[in-house]
């Protein structure tokens, strides 16, 4: 019986195009490393061994490919596992580090272990295991929270990667992504059968060949939301070809009188043509960033949507990140809500704390230490204090957005 179960698992993973198999947990996480998803990361977690198995897919024809981690998203200094092809066509993998000039050195302690590689249909897939903490001072410690993953590639054949300078590569041959590598494998994301879905997505947006685009689309909720619903869960609904393009998304409620009509704007968020009426669409209902899993509310609470006195207009905002300045992207991504008119015991809520994105927040150059302080005004704290004293809040969940 055990042999049969393991065989089924291997077949399923092979059919998805991934080389590895995990007998502890079978969930495979994915991240597009470039805009058109031709370079991608896949990984599984083994908490009993404190290690991750990582797999990279990329087009064949390169001379070397470096994948790794850095403290702040810089390409060097950084910690890399480097794959390169010898003159005889054999692939090798080495644990390396890039110094402040981008020059690679080979680590004395090799911690990119369990190397496997396979080429099929013009795609190279290579796999290795990496401890969360290798105890090597030259290696990055994989911890909870945001990890900056970096990659770089070159097409020249090299006899050795020692002394290779990765700082000379062009824009399309390196990249950086922010991702939460360590996931909660025990999260319960199952939903009752009576839950329905609500998709709020863009429709064939032609993303311009510039690095940063914010796209806004206003929706009017279906008439069934005249009745109050609860959002049990929400998740990203990313078009396959846009996994490396969509950086983050938010859904905002348009806070206005319930009978107020809001124009169904669909365009650049910062366009002068954006109607002034849409500026009231600013109360966060959902937020997602690249690499995040579905957000599930606890069984006793959920976020309210619709009902008496609720303006039926909401707005989707998508940040497209196109550092390679590629053209031809057409996207229909968005956020999917799982909702029900079967209300839970308590309403959940969202509180936003932070500072505006303005030029005055910039850190002046050459500062050894710089303090930036934000204040919550009394009209805000008095409301929070009153609600807490009334006992309306049973818990507080904090989501950080950088």
TrEMBL record:
One of its GO terms (cellular component) is extracellular space. One of its GO terms (molecular function) is dopamine beta-monooxygenase activity. Belongs to the copper type II ascorbate-dependent monooxygenase family. It is a single-pass membrane protein. It is found in: Membrane. InterPro entries: Cu2_ascorb_mOase_CS-1, Cu2_ascorb_mOase_N, Cu2_ascorb_mOase_N_sf, Cu2_monoox_C, DBH-like, DOH_DOMON, DOMON_domain, PHM/PNGase_F_dom_sf. Residues 1-20 form the signal peptide. The keyword Oxidoreductase applies. It holds the Pfam family Cu2_monoox_C. Residues 37-154 form the DOMON domain. The keyword Transmembrane applies. Its cofactor is Cu(2+). The lineage of its organism: Eukaryota, Metazoa, Ecdysozoa, Arthropoda, Hexapoda. Keywords: Copper, Membrane, Metal-binding, Monooxygenase, Oxidoreductase, Signal, Transmembrane, Transmembrane helix. It comes from the Eukaryota. This is DOMON domain-containing protein. GO terms for biological process: dopamine catabolic process; norepinephrine biosynthetic process; octopamine biosynthetic process.
């Amino acid at each position: 019986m055990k042999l049969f179960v393991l065989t089924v698992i291997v077949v399923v993973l092979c059919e998805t195009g991934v080389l590895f198999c995990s007998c502890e947990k079978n969930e495979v996480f994915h991240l597009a490393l470039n805009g058109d998803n031709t370079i991608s990361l896949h990984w599984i977690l083994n908490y009993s061994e404190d290690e991750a198995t990582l797999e990279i897919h990329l087009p064949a024809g390169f001379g070397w490919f470096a994948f790794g981690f850095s403290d702040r998203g810089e390409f060097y200094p950084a910690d890399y596992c480097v794959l390169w092809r010898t003159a005889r066509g054999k692939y090798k993998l080495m644990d390396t580090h890039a110094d402040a000039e981008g020059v690679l050195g080979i680590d004395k302690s090799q911690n990119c272990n369990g190397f496997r590689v396979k080429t099929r249909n013009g795609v190279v897939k290579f796999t290795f295991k990496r401890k969360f903490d290798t105890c090597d001072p030259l290696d990055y410690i994989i911890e909870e929270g945001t990890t900056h993953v970096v990659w770089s590639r070159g097409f020249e054949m090299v006899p050795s990667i020692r002394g290779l300078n990765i700082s000379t590569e062009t824009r399309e041959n390196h990249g950086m992504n922010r991702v939460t590598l360590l996931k909660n494998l025990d999260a319960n994301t199952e939903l009752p059968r009576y839950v329905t879905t609500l998709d709020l997505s863009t429709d064939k947006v032609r993303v311009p060949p510039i690095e940063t685009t914010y796209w806004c689309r206003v929706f009017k909720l279906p008439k069934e939301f005249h009745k109050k619903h609860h959002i049990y869960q929400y998740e990203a609904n990313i078009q396959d070809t846009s996994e490396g393009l969509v950086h983050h998304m938010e859904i905002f409620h348009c806070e206005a009188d319930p009978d107020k009509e809001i124009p169904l704007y669909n365009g650049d968020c910062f366009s002068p043509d954006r109607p002034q009426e849409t500026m009231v669409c600013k109360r966060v209902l959902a937020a997602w960033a690249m690499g995040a899993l579905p957000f599930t509310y606890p069984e006793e609470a959920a976020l309210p949507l619709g009902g008496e006195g609720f303006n039926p207009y909401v707005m989707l905002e998508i940040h497209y990140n196109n550092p390679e300045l590629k053209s031809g992207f057409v996207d229909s991504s968005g956020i999917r809500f799982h909702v029900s008119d079967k209300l839970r015991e308590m309403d959940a809520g969202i509180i936003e704390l932070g500072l505006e994105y303005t030029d005055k927040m910039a850190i002046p150059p050459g500062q050894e230490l710089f303090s930036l302080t934000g204040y919550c005004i009394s009209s805000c704290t008095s409301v929070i204090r009153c609600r807490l004293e009334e006992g309306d809040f049973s818990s507080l969940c904090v989501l950080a957005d950088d």
